[in-house]
Every structure is written in structure tokens, then in C-alpha cells.
Automatic annotation (TrEMBL), chain A:
This protein's record includes keyword Flavoprotein: no
Segments forming domain ABC transporter: 2-232
Family: Belongs to the ABC transporter superfamily.
Record carries keyword Ligase: no
Molecular function via GO: ATP binding; ATP hydrolysis activity
Gene3D superfamilies assigned to the protein according to its UniProt record, in alphabetical order: P-loop containing nucleotide triphosphate hydrolases
UniProt name for this protein: Sodium ABC transporter ATP-binding protein
A Pfam family reported for this protein in Swiss-Prot or TrEMBL: ABC_tran
Cited InterPro entries: AAA+_ATPase (IPR003593), ABC_transporter-like_ATP-bd (IPR003439), ABC_transporter_ATP-binding (IPR050763), P-loop_NTPase (IPR027417)
Keyword annotations of the record: ATP-binding, Nodulation, Nucleotide-binding, Transport
Amino acid sequence: MIEVRDLHKAFGAVKAVDGVSFTARDGEITGLLGPNGAGKTTTLRMLYTLMAPDRGQVLVDGIDAAADPLAVRRQLGVLPDARGLYKRLSARENIDYFGRLHGLPEELLASRREALVKALEMGDIADRRTEGFSQGQRVKTAIARALVHDPRNVILDEPTNGLDVMATRALRQFMTRLKEEGRCVLFSSHIMQEVGALCDRIVVIAHGRVVADETPDALRAQTGENNLEDAFVKIIGSEEGLAA
Amino acid sequence: MNDMSAKIRRSGAFLTVFLKEVKENLRDRRTLMSAFLTGPLLGPLLFVMLINVTLNRELDKAEKPLPVPVLGAAYAPNLIDALKAGGVVPGAAVADPAQTVRKQDADVVLRIAPDYGKAWRKGEPVQVELFYDSSRRDANTSVERVSDLVENYARQQGAMRLVARGLSPGTAWPLQVARRDQATPQSRAVLMFAMLPYFFVITIFMGGMYLAIDLTAGERERQSLEPLFANPVARWKILCGKLAAICAFSTASLLITLLGFAVVGRFIPAEKIGMELDLGLHFATYVLLLMLPLVLLLSALQSLVAAFAKSYREAQTYISLLMLVPIIPSALLSFMPIKAQAWMYAIPLLGQNLGIMQLLRGDGVTVEQIGLCLAGSLAAALVAVLVTAQLYRSEKLAISA
């Protein structure tokens, strides 16, 4: 479970995150929805302790990120916005590197790695060097190495960015599977349909603030719009009106 | 229990990072070439070529017949005979002696005035002209040879005139200088090998350079630093693993270059010009010892500089500039020779430079000098590592865009 309480982060005069609070529960997929530049990536970066918040608190499975960042990172599997792989290592070697950094024993590492290679259907590319991988192959490898230590909580920053239809479908199925395994899945997106189809809960962020935190159905009901996209525009639009 | 063993394995993160970086970079051809081929072997090769060319030229000029165009040879047959006896081959007259020298058609041209014979017979002083270009270093030996021959001939003739007038030749030269050169064969070699320490430093530099760039700026540019930092490993441990990988590569470079110099040292005909050169095991061991703290210092400095850069290219530019810094002590010592004080050994680069020169001179280094050298450089290296570690803690470091 990931709990976020009143996060603030400013870069100079720009308030990137300005009071964000929400909870992502185990066995649920929580979507962080917002237009580009809304503060999604910055919020996630504070969750996986890459950045320290100016104010507010992050709790992962009850552990305070400010007090014990290493313990928090152990509870998390992270696919950051930056998904750079080591191009002179094969996909398997990339996964192994992260597994060893997590301190996995070699036998466990091997079995976890092979399970992920199978689940993500990347058997044909696993021994190739990652140089020249397609976007989809890169994302698969990056997800596999992020999940190799079997984390309870999974954070994915715009996971379907740049993927084709087939790869996107496969990835959505994989996320559903993670949820069914009882994990807490938190992902960010700016794609309406994706969030609507997958999420148990939607947290809408605009201008660094949470403007809605509901189930998809409640969101539709609240705005009186049947179409989620219209609901989204309405929420953000009215928020802009308030801010002005 | 399980938690305990995981903790122990995670403490091996340093080793994990180190092994991964070494493996990854062993697969990169450019890094391999720079660390194990061009970097370490260019020095010894260049060195042996340079030395051989210089030595052979010196040897050639001292022994070989020296062709010198002479104007007005007919006016002074005795002088010409004396020159011939000294190995000079008088050549045909040239139209414009100044132009001939300037165009490098001859090292030196001799002009004898038409009134030479008349003045000589009257016993009056007479002038012969030597045309040469002192900015042409390689011609200096020839110029000196001709000028010495002419002056010796003059002195000889002067002495004979004095004797003919019943005077002792000593009256004309009341004072004589006796030179007592204290240079040993080794110390003469030092002049020529002043750049040797720089070669070693450059080798260390080249050996670690691509890793240093790749491990910070490169990793950031490829956007792999952010995922790496999401792992439950303290950043300073990651940094240490990376530094160790850089050190391993630059130490390997240094070893190869020392081996190269040991082999090449056998082919330098130093003894021919009265020098002695020992680049063997004894020398290599001491150099390695003196250089080890520099390996750490340079790898930390390279990482530091590369971490400031936003891209691979930018890092490359900064590091090339950093590469100029180690020239300073070598240049300083060769242009303005200073007497070494004890404290100088504690200064990184300068200490190593002085120590290696001592070794070349055959004087050996004292325990105190080694101690100062190691302590000074190690302290500087630790500061550089700490500053780099501090930089690694910055939030901005991991963010690629």
C-alpha cells in the first residue's frame, strides 16, 4: 500500500507538486491521470525516493520514505520515466544486475528472472544485447528488471508510452495479472481509455494538485458525463476556472 | 534469518556494480583500444622513436663527413686543408649564402673574403664568415663543429706566429678554463627523459577516461541512472563500485605501459651517448607504487568532472581540458629546474614527477619521500572521492532530461 500525504515540491518559483494526497491500495490498480506537466512524474519520483519532498509524507507499506528510503525502495518495483537499458548487456544480464543489487540469492534470481521472461513473452530476445531493441522490447526488459525482486508495490510511469497496439494490450493484461496477485499497482498516464479500462481508482492531477480521487463510475456520475474523456476535460477545465 | 542473508548479499552491491561495469566495458571496443592499446603503447612507441631519431642524429653529426659550401676556397688553401682534416667536405660555392641557409639547403656556409691572402701575409686580422640559422636546432651540431675547427686553426696559427717572434704562446692566453662536468651517465639521461612521468599520467588518464564518461554522463544520457538509483543501494556504494572499475582499467593501462617501457628500454642506445637507462623491474615497481594513489585521484576527478556534464560530448570536452593539468609539473620541471624540497613530494603529480626523475637519475627514492608522496596524493584522492560522493547525492544528478 502506498500512502501520499500533502506532498509539495517546487523547482525555483515553479510549484511542480502543490499538495498531493492519495492512497493506492493492495489488489487495486490506481491510475494517476493528468495532462502533460501536471506533476505526475515528479510525484512518482518522490514516491521512489529519487527526490525528497519539500513538505508532506510518503508511506509505503507503512514505512516512511524520508526515514528509511532504502527500505521503501525494497518494497517498490519501479518503471521510471527514464527506461535506459545497458546496451552492451543482454536482456537477461540487465535483469540480473538489478536482481543482484536487490540482494537476491542466485537460484531465486534465476527462477524469478525466467518467470518474468515467460510472463512478458520475451524468450526470443532475452539473450540478445539490448542495443537495437524496439520500444516494446525495451519496456518489457525494463519492467522485468523492475519486478525481479517480487515487490508488493509496483509504480509504472506512463508504461504504454510509445508502444504499439499489440504491446499495449499485452502490457495491460500483465498489469491486471499483477493486481490479481494482490499487488498494489500505481501507474501514471494521460490516456483516458487506458485509465478507464484498467483502474479501480483514478486520481486526477492538474497543476500539481489532486482535483479528483474516485472510481471511474463515481467520476462519471460526479461530472454527469457518460464519457470519461468529457469528465476529464470538465474536471480539469473547472479547476482551471477556479485557479483563475 | 532470511532477512539477514539478504542484507549481507546487498552489502555486496559494491562488487555487483564493479563486476557489471567491468563486464560491460570489456565489451566496448573503443574503451578496450584506449585502455589497453593506444593509451599505454603509444607512449613507449613515440618515446623510442623520438629518442632514436635524436640519438642517431647526434651520433651521425659527430662522426659523419660534413658538407659545407665554401665561397672563396681558393684564397685560403691552408684553412681549407685544416677543415678537411676535421671531416668537413668543402662544397662548391653558392650564389647567395644567406638564402641557402634559410632554405635549409645547407646547415652552414663559409665565406672567405678575396683579400684573405693579402691580409694573412701582412699578419693582419682577417675575417671569415659563417652563415647559419640558430633557430634550427638540428643544425647546431654542424655549426659548432665548423666554428670550433676554424677557431682551433686560428689559435694554432696565432701560437705559431708568437713562437716565430720568440714569445711564449702562453702570453696571449693568460687564463684557461678547465671544465669538470659532474653529470653521471644517468643524470644526463634525465634531461632527455623529462617527459616520462607525463606519459605515465596520460596513460592512467586514457585508461579510465571512457569509463569515467560512460559511468556518469553516459549513463545519464542513456537514461539508465534513474532506474539504477531506484534500487535499494546507497548511492555512495554505487559510486565506489564505479570508481573501482575505473581504477581497475587505468591500473591495467599503467601496467601495460610499464611493461612497454621495460621492453622498449632495451632498444634505446642510450649508452652510445654516455647515458644509462634502467626501465626494468626495479623501476617499474617503484613507479607503480608512486602512481597508485594517482590512479584513485584521477578516477575520482574524472568522475567528478563527468558528473557535471549534461551529455557524453560535454563530458569529453571537460575531460580533455582536465588532461592538460598533469602537463604542468612536467613542463615546470623541464623549463625551470627547481631544487626539490621535501614538501614538494607531498603534492600530487609533482611528487610523482620528482620521484620518477630521482629513479631515472639512479639516486633512488627514500622511504620518507615515498611516504610523503603516497600520503599527499592519497589525501587529495580521498577529498576528490568525498566531493564526488557529495555530488552523487544531488537530486539533479539522476534526472536525465
